[in-house]
């Protein structure tokens, strides 16, 4: 199954969940989703039989209703899950879940010698190994799996390309080794290590890693709008280009979907820029060697769980979402706030912030539009109460934050860009911590996803398409006001 196929499948499940909610018979129609998607006589698309496909779809519906697959007893019907979702007061904390029946149970990651090995005299593979994991026997190199650290130096050293690696996509993509196999060979998330970056979601070719949706929680509140409850949407800067039309048509479409009003999180980014620029100036004046940004939820989770000692170099400024939610709650204290963004990591941030009630992603917003037959291009343009700056709207891409802070800072800045957290870029941060300085510069922008937020796990379009659309918006946007 390709990533596009998985995304389409997940999208169809979400659309059907929303339509089931809107039908007036939520429980029964939610129960029928796997059977309607794979009716009797359907040609099997991905699994061995129609019954397994239905079983996987059942689990996708459970995750779409906001529950953990790991807690499923296989007896509880989808109708019961739907009713529980209606009764739920607060979303679950851990935002990720594994669909075990969808997991292929891939072979363990390992480096091994293939039959191409020529048993050469140079033994360059042995010389490259720092762990003495390679020996020579029966005319070829042999790797001791117990000693091998999967550093892959031998792969690079072999002149014949005779050494290969078995990769497990979800494990290989995780920057903090938070995924491992259980006793049955099925993927398991170590939530003590997980930073909810979402890389495993987009890298598993079987779609076995799933985000637990909060769409039903949002639908329940949209239904209460008629009772006077205000539902305020807060859209991330990276939303530009995710849907047809511009952000002003998108605002109208979101309101048409049932929300009371829409605020750009770029508005909060403008506050972040001012605070972070002032903080950068102060820290440089004090002689601090460098400062890292603090707006990425995935990076903040990484610091908390894996590199707490670097906290002294991290900006104390809050995220754009923090300031936006604070502003919205000050205007509408009893309103329900819903952040709409590109990744799963923001669900962790929201869990610890009482000003943020729910989080949905671009995929879920798109499913809501389809279920309600809303075409963004057909919507009239609607202005925002507060027009965000060019710099605030640029937060959605790599270099956007660093450029914004540099624009306002009085101190000369020399930005360093961490374009996606992975083993290599994490080593850059660890080296800066060890040495007490960042060799390349004095302000380090860290984005958990490559290309920035436009590369999040739940975006709809490619990073390049989103970047082009965002650039057009930035051309029409005004610079943030500089203070004298």
Account of the 3D structure:
The chain has 484 residues and is an alpha/beta fold. It folds into 3 domains: 3-104 and 175-212, no CATH class; 110-166, 2-Layer Sandwich (Alpha-Beta Plaits), CATH 3.30.70; 218-476, no CATH class. The chain contains 20 helices and 15 strands. The strands form 6 sheets. The chain has a 4-stranded parallel beta sheet, sandwiched between helices. Strands 11-15-14 form a 3-stranded parallel beta sheet, with helices on one face. A two-stranded antiparallel sheet has the order 1-8. A hairpin with a 5-residue loop joins strand 6 and strand 7 (187-189). The termini are far apart. 46% of the residues are buried.
C-alpha Rg, in Å? 24 Å
- What is the strand arrangement across the widest sheet? 10-9-12-13
Helical content, roughly?
Answer: 40-55%
**Biggest sheet features:** 4 strands, parallel
Overall mean pLDDT:
93
Please tag this protein with its features.
484 residues; alpha/beta; Alpha-Beta Plaits; 4-stranded parallel sheet; 3-stranded parallel sheet; globular
Write the layout of secondary structure elements.
Layout: H1 3-22, H2 26-31, H3 33-37, H4 50-64, H5 78-87, E1 96-98, E2 110-113, H6 124-128, E3 134-137, E4 140-143, H7 153-157, E5 163-166, H8 169-173, E6 179-181, E7 187-189, H9 199-203, E8 209-211, H10 215-223, E9 231-235, H11 247-256, E10 261-264, H12 266-286, E11 291-292, H13 297-306, H14 320-331, E12 336-341, H15 345-351, E13 358-361, H16 362-371, H17 390-393, H18 400-408, E14 415-419, H19 423-435, E15 443-447, H20 463-476
Parallel strand pairs: 9-10, 9-12, 11-15, 12-13, 14-15
Antiparallel strand pairs: 1-8, 2-5, 3-4, 6-7
């Amino acid at each position: 199954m390709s990533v596009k196929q998985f995304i389409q499948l997940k999208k169809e499940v979400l659309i059907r969940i929303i339509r089931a909610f809107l039908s007036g018979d939520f429980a029964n129609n939610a129960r029928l989703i796997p059977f309607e998607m794979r009716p009797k006589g359907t040609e099997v698309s991905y699994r061995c039989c129609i019954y397994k496909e239905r079983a996987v779809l059942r689990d996708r519906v459970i995750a779409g209703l906001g529950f953990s697959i790991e807690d499923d007893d296989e007896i509880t019907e989808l109708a019961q899950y739907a009713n529980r979702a209606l009764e739920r007061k607060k979303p679950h904390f851990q935002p990720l879940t594994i669909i075990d029946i969808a997991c292929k149970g891939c072979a363990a990651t390992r480096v091994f010698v293939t039959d191409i090995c020529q048993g050469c005299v140079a033994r360059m593979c042995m010389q490259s190994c720092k762990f003495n994991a390679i020996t020579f026997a029966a005319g070829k190199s042999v790797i001791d799996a117990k000693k091998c650290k999967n550093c892959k130096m031998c792969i690079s050293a072999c002149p014949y390309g005779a050494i290969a690696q078995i990769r497990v996509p979800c494990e290989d993509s995780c920057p903090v080794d938070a995924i491992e196999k259980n006793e049955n060979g099925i993927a398991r998330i170590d939530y003590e290590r997980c930073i909810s970056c979402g890389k495993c979601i987009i890298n598993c070719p079987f779609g076995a890693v799933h985000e637990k949706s909060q769409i039903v929680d949002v639908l329940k509140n949209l239904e209460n709008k008629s009772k006077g409850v205000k539902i305020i949407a807060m859209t991330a800067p990276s939303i530009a280009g995710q849907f047809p039309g511009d952000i002003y048509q998108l605002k109208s479409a979101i309101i048409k979907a049932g929300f009371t009003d829409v605020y750009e999180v770029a508005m909060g980014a403008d506050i972040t820029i001012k605070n972070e620029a002032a903080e950068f100036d102060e820290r440089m004046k004090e002689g601090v060697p460098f400062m890292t940004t603090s707006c990425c939820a995935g990076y903040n989770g990484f610091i908390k769980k894996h590199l707490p000692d670097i906290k002294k170099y991290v900006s104390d400024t809050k995220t754009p979402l923090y300031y936006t939610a604070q502003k919205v709650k000050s205007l509408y204290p009893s309103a329900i706030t819903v952040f709409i963004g590109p990744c799963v990591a923001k669900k962790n941030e929201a869990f610890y912030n009482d000003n943020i009630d729910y989080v949905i992603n671009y995929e879920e917003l798109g499913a809501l539009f389809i279920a309600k037959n809303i075409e963004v291009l057909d919507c009239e343009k609607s202005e925002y109460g507060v027009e965000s700056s060019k710099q605030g709207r640029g937060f959605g891409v790599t270099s956007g934050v660093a450029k914004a802070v540099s624009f306002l800072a009085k101190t000369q800045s020399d930005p360093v860009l961490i374009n996606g957290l992975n083993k290599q870029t994490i080593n850059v941060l660890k080296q800066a911590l060890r040495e007490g300085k960042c060799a390349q510069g004095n302000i380090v922008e860290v984005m958990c996803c490559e290309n920035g937020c436009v590369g999040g796990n739940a975006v709809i379009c490619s990073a390049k398409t989103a970047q082009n659309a965002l650039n057009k918006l930035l051309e029409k946007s005004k610079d943030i006001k500089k203070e004298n």
